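Here is the promised in-class demo. Please do not try to memorize the tokens; focus on the logic of going from shape to residues.
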């Protein structure tokens, strides 16, 4: 049964009542004062004498014309990007969990030899030692040396909850970090590198330091290997002065808003940092006026986040979570820095991350900013990142074909899966 016109009419009246409460005339003055006050606090935001966020250089809100920017020259001769596709974690009624992750790299201009290189990781987990998983091979090479694959096993007993998410993250981050390190010396150091998502595997890092009997990743060798890989990636790019970013399409961070509340600014209307930055960078609060600004991009200065949520447990200003992990540079070089870009015509906000070891250099910050704005002006999501996504993606029919190959395992199917089927073609 669907909603009928009488139901739509009733809901529409409710919408009007709520919407009138949020008219720009009622909120604009208070919001503007609040945003300006908060912006000033972002010069250096502290909580319990610990720096949560600080501006690199002066605070600013920039604006540029999309058409003019798109007509300029790309500041880099070649752009690279890495992305991966996944079956998503599937569970079977014998207790097995498995996720296959397929990673590829793309370039602009196109390099077909590079595009043909692939890394595939199958991450598995079973709570029972009696279940045997064949992990005897390191990398199996195929496609005349252009591709490689590996099965890994997360040891029994380490995961009692959040199994789907953890197995997926380990497959994803291991495949991507190994692929980047495998091909790093084949890339032109005069180029620009874009990761899909954050520059660090933050979810795994969190569970590496949390005291929990449900998720005990501090004992997992694969997670440790992943973290070392990301440190090695940062070290390589600092060594070569080879700019790279993490392009975060859906930023979900809340640390800035939480810190402001803890510092006594209680009446903040936003929970997520991205909501604040959208308001900061928006030139109108009226959706009907958006067309006036559809030809512009707005953006912030760079910020440094030296003490994120997991770092409270580390007692350090870097993402290094174990003393035995190798790092070539001072710890602050591994700290996260970022700026944000707002696309008014789509009401989209992107977070652009890079390690402080690169952005400590003002010229590097400027050239990364210019490159990102150029790519977004051409196409909201950088074209090279779109290429990598299209190459790496595992289609719905392919996911089904892969899982159907299991002859001795039966999917642990729930009613919702029967009702809705595959949830999201883009997962």
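The designed amino acids, position by position:
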């Amino acid at each position: 049964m669907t909603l009928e016109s009488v139901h739509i009419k009733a809901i529409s009246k409710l919408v009007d009542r709520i919407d009138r409460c949020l008219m720009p005339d009622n909120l604009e003055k208070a919001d503007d004062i609040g945003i300006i006050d908060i912006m000033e606090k972002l010069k250096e935001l502290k909580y319990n004498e610990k720096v949560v966020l600080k501006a690199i250089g002066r605070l600013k809100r920039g604006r540029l014309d999309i058409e003019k920017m798109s007509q300029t020259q790309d500041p880099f001769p070649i752009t690279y990007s890495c992305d991966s596709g996944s079956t998503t974690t599937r569970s079977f009624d014998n207790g097995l969990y498995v996720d296959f992750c397929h990673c590829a790299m793309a370039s602009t201009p196109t390099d077909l030899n590079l595009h043909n290189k692939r890394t595939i990781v199958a991450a598995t987990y079973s709570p029972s030692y009696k279940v045997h998983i064949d992990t005897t091979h390191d990398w199996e090479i195929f496609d005349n040396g252009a591709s490689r694959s590996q099965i890994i096993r997360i040891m029994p007993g380490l995961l009692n909850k959040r199994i789907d998410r953890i197995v997926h993250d380990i497959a994803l981050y291991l495949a991507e970090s190994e692929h980047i390190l495998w091909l790093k010396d084949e890339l032109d150091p005069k180029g620009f590198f874009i990761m899909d998502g954050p520059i660090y595997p933050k979810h795994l890092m969190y569970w590496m330091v949390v005291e929990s009997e449900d998720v005990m990743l501090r004992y997992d060798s694969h997670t440790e290997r992943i973290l070392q890989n990301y440190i090695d990636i940062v070290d390589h790019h600092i060594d070569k002065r080879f700019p790279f970013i993490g392009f975060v399409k859906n930023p979900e961070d809340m640390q800035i808003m939480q810190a402001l509340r803890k510092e006594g600014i209680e009446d903040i209307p936003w929970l997520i940092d991205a909501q604040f930055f959208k308001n900061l960078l928006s030139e109108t609060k009226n959706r009907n006026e958006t067309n006036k600004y559809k030809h512009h991009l707005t953006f912030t200065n760079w910020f440094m986040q030296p003490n994120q949520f997991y770092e409270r447990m580390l007692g350090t200003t870097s993402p290094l979570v174990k003393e035995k992990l190798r790092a070539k540079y001072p710890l602050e070089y591994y700290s996260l820095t970022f700026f944000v870009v707002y696309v008014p015509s789509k009401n989209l906000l992107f977070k652009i991350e890079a390690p402080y070891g690169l952005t400590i250099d003002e010229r590097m910050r400027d050239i990364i900013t210019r490159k990102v704005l150029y790519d977004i002006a051409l196409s909201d999501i950088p074209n090279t990142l779109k290429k990598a996504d299209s190459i790496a993606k595992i289609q719905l029919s392919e996911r089904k074909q892969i899982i159907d190959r299991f002859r001795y395992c039966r999917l642990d199917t729930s009613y919702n899966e029967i009702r809705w089927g595959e949830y999201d073609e883009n997962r």
